[in-house]
Amino acid sequence: xxxxxxxxxxxxxxxxxxxxxxxxxxxxxxxxxxxxxxxxxxxxxxxxxxxxxxxxxxxxxxxxxxxxxxxxxxxxxxxxxxxxxxxxxxxxxxxxxxxxxxxxxxxxxxxxxx
Length: 114
What we know:
- 36% of the residues lie in helices and 35% in strands.
- By secondary structure, it is of the alpha+beta class.
- The protein is globular.
């Protein structure tokens, strides 16, 4: 199967997300992914969550502090930021979630915002 031409490929934006919780807590990448999907579905509905298309690209969480890089479609960053702002707990672990910035590439997102 051939790849799509560059002008037909989906364009992405990356959100740098800071995560803070109680010291000693543990959260996994799949748990964060599931909570993002549920929050998107609750906030913008099924069609809206499909348009936003959130996925966790990079994740690190240790001893109550961590970060994540969340990918979304270009043009949907405002709704993606709203969905991330709706998170208050992941897998029944209360977290403080803050979007540090937005970037066009995952590497630039990691380097400049986290």
